[in-house]
Design brief:
Blueprint: H1 2-11, E1 16-24, E2 27-34, H2 38-52, H3 77-91, E3 98-102, H4 110-113, E4 119-124, H5 130-140, E5 145-149, E6 162-168, H6 177-189, E7 191-203, H7 208-219, H8 225-238, E8 243-244, H9 246-256, E9 260-266, H10 274-278, E10 279-286, E11 296-297, H11 302-307, E12 313-318, H12 330-339, E13 343-347, E14 355-360, E15 380-381, H13 388-403, E16 412-415
Parallel strand pairs: 2-16, 3-4, 3-6, 4-5, 6-7, 11-12
Antiparallel strand pairs: 1-2, 7-10, 8-15, 9-10, 12-14, 13-14
Bound molecules: S-adenosylmethionine.
C-alpha cells in the first residue's frame, strides 16, 4: 500500500517514463526510467533559434551556423554548396515521391527537393525559420510544401505516409540512443512499402578521436604529444553531440527484420573538410533485389575489370585517402565506375576508415550483410549532458517532497534504463 502510493507519486514526477519502488535493506529505493531529456533538446532548439531569427539569404543558399569544429571558422561556401549538391544528388538517385524532412532547418535541401518531389513536408523544432522558408518554396513547387513546427519525437502526429524520409545533419542533436531509436521507429512506421529512410551527415563515433587530434593540432601554436593528448581528452570529455558508429544502422536494420538493409556510405564529393572526412550517410529500406555472388578483387585490378565488363565487382577494405596518404579516394571509385556504366555503392559499415566498394552493371549489388554486432544502442556514443541523471534524481525527489509524507519518501533514487524485475 505504501509502496503503491510512493510509486504513484513517482509516476507523476517530471520526465518519468516508468518507475518502481522496492524495499531494500529496510529502506525504500525508487527506480526511475527517465523520459526523453527535454532540457538537452531545448538547449539545441534555443541555439538554432538564434541562428534562424534573421531571415535567410534570398537565393535560398544559407550556410549560416556551419562552422568548422577544427579551427572555429565558417566552412567555405563552395564546400557547403558541394556538400548540399552531393547530398541532394544522393537523395534524388531514385524518384523521391512524397518527401518528409525532419529537422528541415532553413531549407538548404528543401529548396532543391521541392521541384522533383511529389509533395514535401518539412518539420523542425524551431518555428522561426519556417515562414520565410514557406515563401521561398512556394514559387519552386507551388502548393507542394507543408511546414510544421514539431519535435522529431512527434512524427506519429503527421498524417499519411512518405516515400522518402530525410534526417540530414540532425541526429547529432539528439540526447541519447533511446531518443534516436524512438525517432527512427516513428519514421519507419511512416514509410510507404517501398520507402527509404535517409539518415545523413552522421558524425562517425569510430573516427571521433582522429577529429579531436586534427582539432588539437589546428589550435596549438606549438603542439607537443602531451598538449595534443590533453586537448584530445578535453574534446572527448566535452563532446556535446551524439555520435554513431555505422554498425548502429546495420544492427538497427537487422532489428527491423530480414528484408531490411542499411547502406552506409562515405559522403560524395571532392571537397575536403570535417564533413567529408568524419561523417557518413545511411539509407534504410527493404531489400529491392536479391544479391548476385560477388567477385572479390583488389583496387589495382579495377580498370581492367571495368574495361572487361566484369560484374559484379567487390573490393574490400580500401584504405580511405581522405583519412591518410596513399589510399583510395571514394570519389575516384564512384566516378570510375560511373564512367564505365556501373552502379557503384560504397560500404562504410566496417567501423574503421576503410571502405568496401560494390560495382555492378545491372543495377544494385545487394548489400553484403554483416552479422549485427551488439544492440543498436551499443553503437551510439551519447553526448555528455553533465550530471543529467543526478539533476533529474534531485528534481524527482523535490517533486516527491511536495506530495508524500516523510515516511513514504524513498531513501534514494536510481536512474536506470530498465526497471528491476
Ligand atoms: C544542422 S541543421 C540541418 C538542417 C537541414 N536538415 C540540412 O541538412 O540542411 C539541424 C536542424 O535540426 C533541427 N533540430 C535539432 N534537434 C531537433 C529535434 N530534436 N527535433 C526536430 N528538429 C531538431 C534544428 O532546429 C536544425 O534546424
Amino acid at each position: 500500500m505504501d509502496i503503491a502510493r510512493t510509486t504513484a507519486a513517482l509516476r507523476g514526477a517530471p520526465r518519468v517514463r516508468a518507475a518502481a519502488v522496492l524495499h531494500a535493506g529496510g529502506e525504500l529505493v525508487a527506480y526511475v526510467v527517465p523520459g526523453h531529456n527535454t532540457a538537452a533538446v531545448s538547449a539545441w532548439r534555443d541555439a538554432f533559434r538564434e541562428i534562424y531569427k534573421e531571415p535567410a539569404a534570398p537565393d535560398g543558399f544559407d550556410a549560416r551556423g556551419w562552422v568548422s569544429s577544427i579551427d572555429g571558422k565558417p566552412l567555405a561556401e563552395q564546400d557547403m554548396r558541394a556538400w548540399r549538391d552531393t547530398t541532394v544528388a544522393r537523395l534524388l538517385a531514385a524518384p523521391p515521391g512524397r518527401v518528409l524532412e525532419v529537422g528541415c532547418g532553413n531549407g538548404l535541401l528543401a529548396t532543391e527537393l521541392i521541384g522533383p518531389c511529389a509533395a514535401y513536408t518539412g518539420t523542425d523544432i524551431v518555428a522561426e525559420g519556417l515562414p520565410s522558408l514557406r515563401t521561398r518554396l512556394q514559387p519552386l513547387g507551388p502548393g507542394k510544401a507543408t511546414l510544421v513546427r514539431a519535435e522529431a519525437t512527434d512524427l506519429h502526429t503527421l498524417p499519411g505516409e512518405y516515400d522518402l524520409i530525410v534526417l540530414n545533419s540532425v541526429i547529432q542533436y539528439f540526447p541519447d540512443a533511446r531518443y534516436l531509436l524512438d525517432v527512427l521507429d516513428q519514421a519507419v512506421a511512416k514509410l510507404s512499402p517501398g520507402g527509404r529512410l535517409f539518415v545523413g551527415d552522421v558524425r562517425h563515433s569510430g573516427l571521433a578521436e582522429r577529429l579531436y587530434v586534427e582539432r588539437a593540432y589546428a589550435r596549438l601554436a606549438e603542439p607537443t604529444p602531451e598538449k595534443v593528448a590533453r586537448l584530445v581528452r578535453v574534446s572527448s570529455t566535452a563532446e556535446g553531440e551524439l555520435l554513431a558508429d555505422p554498425r548502429f544502422f546495420v544492427a538497427y536494420a537487422h532489428r527491423l527484420g530480414p528484408d531490411w538493409y542499411a547502406d552506409v556510405e562515405p559522403k560524395r564529393g571532392r571537397y575536403d573538410n570535417e564533413l567529408s572526412r568524419y561523417r557518413f550517410d545511411a539509407t534504410l529500406g527493404r531489400t529491392p533485389v536479391p544479391g548476385a555472388a560477388p567477385v572479390v578483387r583488389s583496387f589495382g585490378d579495377l580498370p581492367r575489370l571495368l574495361a572487361g565488363h566484369v560484374s559484379p565487382i567487390v573490393l574490400r577494405d580500401l584504405p580511405n585517402a581522405r583519412l591518410g596518404s596513399g589510399g583510395v579516394h571514394p570519389e575516384d571509385v564512384y566516378e570510375l565506375g560511373a564512367a564505365h556504366g556501373y552502379t557503384v555503392r560504397l560500404d562504410w559499415t566496417g567501423g574503421g576508415p576503410e571502405f568496401d566498394a560494390y560495382l555492378s552493371r545491372d543495377g544494385r549489388v545487394a548489400p553484403l550483410r554483416l552479422p549485427p554486432d551488439g544492440t543498436p544502442a551499443s553503437h551510439v556514443s551519447a553526448p555528455r549532458l553533465g550530471g543529467a541523471n543526478e539533476r533529474h534524481a534531485a528534481e524527482v525527489l523535490a517533486h516527491l517532497g511536495e506530495v508524500l509524507p516523510a515516511d513514504l519518501m524513498p531513501a534514494r533514487i536510481e536512474i536506470v534504463d530498465t526497471l528491476p524485475t
